[in-house]
Specification:
heterodimer; A: 264 residues; alpha/beta; Rossmann fold; 30% strand; B: 319 residues; seven-stranded parallel β-sheet; five-stranded parallel β-sheet; globular; binds flavin-adenine dinucleotide; binds adenosine monophosphate
Amino acid sequence: MRIVVTVKFVPDLQSHRSFTDGTVTRTADDGTMNELDENAVEAALQLKEALPEGEAEVYAVTVGGPDAVAAVRKALQLGVDHAVHVCDESIAGSDVFGTARVLAAAVREIEKDGPVDLVITGMAALDALTSMLPTALAAELDVAQLTLASSLAVANGVATIERHMPDAHETVTAPLPALVSVTDEANTPRYPNFKLIMAARTKPVATWSLTDIGVDPAQVGAMASRTTVLDASTQPPRENRVKINDTGDGGVQLARFLIERGLA
Amino acid sequence: MTDTMVTVLVEHRGNEIAQPTLEALTLARSIGRPIAVWMGEEPPAGAVTALREYGAEEVRVVAIGDRARHSGTAAAVLAAATADSAIVLMVSTFFTKEVATRLAIATGAGVVVDAAGAALVDGRVETTQTVFAATWNVRTRVNADRAIVTLRPNTTQAAPADRPAAGEVISVMGMLPEVRETVVSVTPVERDAGVPLSEAAVVVAGGRGTRGDYTLVRELADVLGGAVGASRDAIDEGWISHEHMVGQTGVTVTPVLYVACGISGAVHHRGGMQASGTIVAVNIDPDAPIFEIADFGVVGDLGDVLPQAIEALKARRQG
Ligand SMILES: Cc1cc2nc3c(=O)[nH]c(=O)nc-3n(C[C@H](O)[C@H](O)[C@H](O)COP(=O)(O)OP(=O)(O)OC[C@H]3O[C@@H](n4cnc5c(N)ncnc54)[C@H](O)[C@@H]3O)c2cc1C
Ligand SMILES: Nc1ncnc2c1ncn2[C@@H]1O[C@H](COP(=O)(O)O)[C@@H](O)[C@H]1O
């Protein structure tokens, strides 16, 4: 089984996140692999480890600027076999459809060495939280799509997931090849251990340009983007905030606040 | 208002129209000519009346039953049902984001998800939204000729049209695509009475600090006419069911009022509620991060504070 995991380089959730010229600022010092992609990597590694040695291979692929290599390096530390970084100036400013096109081309490039059975993504990147890429990538690849998986199993060429929809819990199956997006409930990501970190140092990262994977630069990047951020401004902090210590009438004061604000 | 056709995908639970649909229709009226698309079973007469009252010039019905639960199928028929619309509005959910993505791939439209508003500016759709846990405001322009915008609930004040529109009911059918995915089991979740969490104007949420007892949280929610939410830890403990989870991987809520009880305010939780109108927190730890974003914070034991608040609010209602 050959599995591709897509991993995104995002600003650290705990850090100060911002915009530069209409795109999310992403630099190496405060950037990291999207947290939910750790669950995607873990899902792939668990499927691999359930098979006899040598029967599965896991690729991690990221699309992004030079700093984004940190995302696939992290994936190598977690134990994936191969890392691919698609990096090309023409990609900058792509919308989700551009990114999906590039990722799909990367998957097809990997397929030159043998078919890819499964693509695993995170359910969302915790930067912009759009959750659109998994669907866009499944459409580009023209494969079955199993999104928001809180569990994943693969047997006899069929992937089975469970998912929590607002009105129902569903079990959904699809024949491979398929794309699966996972939630943080799917598993508990491992920590890279010393041995894996040392081993990751010597594993190469393949860096591909758009030419390498046969994507026309005119079809991606800011020029091809169907949306443009016009401006971004920080939300003013909440003003006149009140914090009281409960000295016996905290509940009454809370009620009074709600009433005064017309909220109760 | 312009002649631009603005189609609103109706969000409904069985026969009942979800409130954010009426918000979307209200917004659609401010942009152009609203058309409603109803997918699933045939809509009941009452629902059609409501759509007319909110200005739907046509009610297009795509009667494909449960097949509408498949995002690819929904997008394919929607492409047919919205072929004449430059703008398609949907209510933001994980499901509609998938539908929007597929529809955009089919039609070349540009997509903005989780918007708080949309307008036509010089013939292009411009949206506003907040990102990064509501710490930034962003204005986006759709460059494509067609735009799909998914809207956060509680961002437009729903108001009926001055007079009801004709709202002629028209049946639409598109080509149903081949479906590779099979839903092998569906276990419906039991819904709390009242408004669903994602749409509620008031949310009262409880976390680990409740120690599993949601009685007070539910009571306060009742008094305020709101829905009950929870943190991830409470769900993991099995204290309350999954659809109550607020946060980046649960439901994103934007109520007028959010009351966090015994919730620390982890960044993942904040990401799903920080855009709320007014935030109130009750927490025993004065250093809990939730206080950094609370308009009104009470440092105290929720076991003391909530009963007193509930009583005071009830007394006022009776008085
Ligand atoms: C990838 C990922 C995604 C996640 N997604 C989400 C998500 O979508 N939503 C989410 O909520 N979390 C999410 N989490 C988990 C999140 O990081 C926190 O662990 C979680 O939100 C904490 O829940 P809590 O506030 O209830 O518990 P705690 O952090 O343990 O806080 C409990 C609070 O209760 C207070 N307290 C205790 N007793 C009392 C009392 N008697 N009266 C008043 N206050 C009291 C304490 O002071 C404390 O502040 C995610 C985590 C990861 C890694
Ligand atoms: N630039 C990217 N490179 C690799 N994977 C990505 C990229 N953008 C998004 N993804 C994947 O798509 C998932 C959902 O992202 P999003 O749709 O941006 O919320 C992420 O968890 C990643 O697995």
